[in-house]
């Protein structure tokens, strides 16, 4: 049998399995969200598991020690974390968030989340959008390219370049890790940045910091299928097939492994389900979810969304 025919059969089996799961979940469970067919419906479990790319910080730190970094001054010193008067906020409506891009078959979510934050920060500060290159961080942030990365080495790489970054039109995305070039075309200067972690598990603080500093880089547990955990498999299948609504999977908040990076862009309340939510931009293209975004239940640290988040600001 030809190899292409074998692959076709494998994809047909994956499609049938996922289609059955989507249909059963939508009809048998009272969910606050709906699943649907998308570009990943015929992907294998192994392909799905390699489509994330957020490395644990202890792994990333092994290869990032050659750079120093500057944390932002303590938030409380400048912005007391008191109650926020805003019931909802959405940076996508303020025209500072770029469209949802597509990382392809490369574990580069960390680069897309980081670049999305840089783009929004630049637009807020200068009033104009820029399409920044994700590929430069895949190639040059001293991590593992398409096999994963995280926030701090990306930030350290930016610092090593004196806050100059390349634009996507000059350094386009290929979804393949390449050698970091020894020279770059002239890019744009972002201005010196500082960063700080959002206080862990503090979703009220995260809400305030989102408004004050702009979109936030978040870490998330999207499940995993290469294991014996039915819960992690269930999370993975639901997240990959997410179509619309407020994502809420019982038990996901207790799962410690964060394996996907995304960009937090807003928050609000869904009157249909009665749930508060976070609005998050993914990097799986605009045909996934709600035009490339997902709403995630807020207030319960759903899937670790408030466990390891970062924001950036300009140097005072």
TrEMBL record:
Note the InterPro entries from the entry: Papain-like_cys_pep_sf, Pept_his_AS, Peptidase_C1A, Peptidase_C1A_C, Peptidase_C1A_papain-like, Prot_inhib_I29
Superkingdom, according to UniProt?
Eukaryota
Biological process according to GO: proteolysis
Matching PROSITE patterns: THIOL_PROTEASE_HIS
What's a single GO MF annotation on this record? Answer: cysteine-type peptidase activity
* Stretches assigned to the Cathepsin propeptide inhibitor domain: 1-48
Q: Where in this chain does the record put each Peptidase C1A papain C-terminal domain? A: 85-313
What the record says about family reads:
Belongs to the peptidase C1 family.
Q: What is this protein called?
A: Uncharacterized protein
Task: Tell me what organism the protein belongs to.
Answer: Adineta ricciae (Rotifer)
**Upper taxonomic classification of the species?**
Eukaryota, Metazoa, Spiralia, Gnathifera, Rotifera
């Amino acid at each position: 049998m030809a190899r292409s025919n074998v692959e076709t059969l494998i994809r047909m089996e994956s499609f049938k399995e996922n289609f059955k799961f989507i249909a059963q979940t939508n009809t048998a469970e009272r969910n606050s969200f709906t699943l649907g067919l998308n570009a990943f419906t015929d992907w294998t479990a192994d392909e799905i598991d390699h489509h994330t790319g957020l490395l644990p910080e202890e792994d990333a730190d092994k290869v990032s020690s050659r750079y120093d970094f500057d944390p932002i001054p303590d938030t409380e010193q400048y912005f007391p974390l008191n109650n926020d008067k805003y019931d909802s906020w959405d940076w996508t409506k303020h025209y500072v968030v770029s469209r949802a891009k597509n990382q392809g078959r490369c574990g580069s979510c960390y680069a897309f989340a980081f670049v999305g934050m840089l783009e929004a920060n630049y637009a807020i500060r200068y009033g104009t959008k820029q399409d920044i290159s994700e590929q430069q961080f895949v190639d040059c942030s001293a991590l593992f390219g398409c096999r994963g990365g995280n926030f701090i080495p990306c930030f350290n790489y930016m610092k090593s370049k004196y806050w100059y970054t390349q634009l996507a039109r000059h350094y386009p995305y290929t979804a393949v890790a390449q050698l970091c070039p020894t020279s770059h075309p002239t890019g744009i200067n972002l201005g010196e940045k500082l960063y700080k972690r959002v206080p862990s598990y503090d979703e009220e603080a995260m809400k305030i910091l989102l408004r004050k500093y702009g979109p936030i880089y978040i870490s998330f547990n999207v499940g995993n299928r290469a294991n014996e955990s039915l819960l992690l498999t269930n999370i993975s299948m639901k997240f990959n097939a997410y179509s619309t609504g407020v994502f809420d999977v019982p038990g996901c908040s207790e799962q410690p492994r964060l394996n996907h990076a995304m960009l937090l862009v807003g928050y609000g309340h869904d009157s249909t389900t009665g749930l508060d939510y976070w609005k998050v931009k993914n990097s799986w293209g605009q045909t996934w979810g709600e035009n490339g975004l997902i709403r995630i239940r807020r207030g319960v640290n759903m899937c670790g969304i408030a466990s390891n988040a970062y924001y950036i600001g300009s140097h005072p």
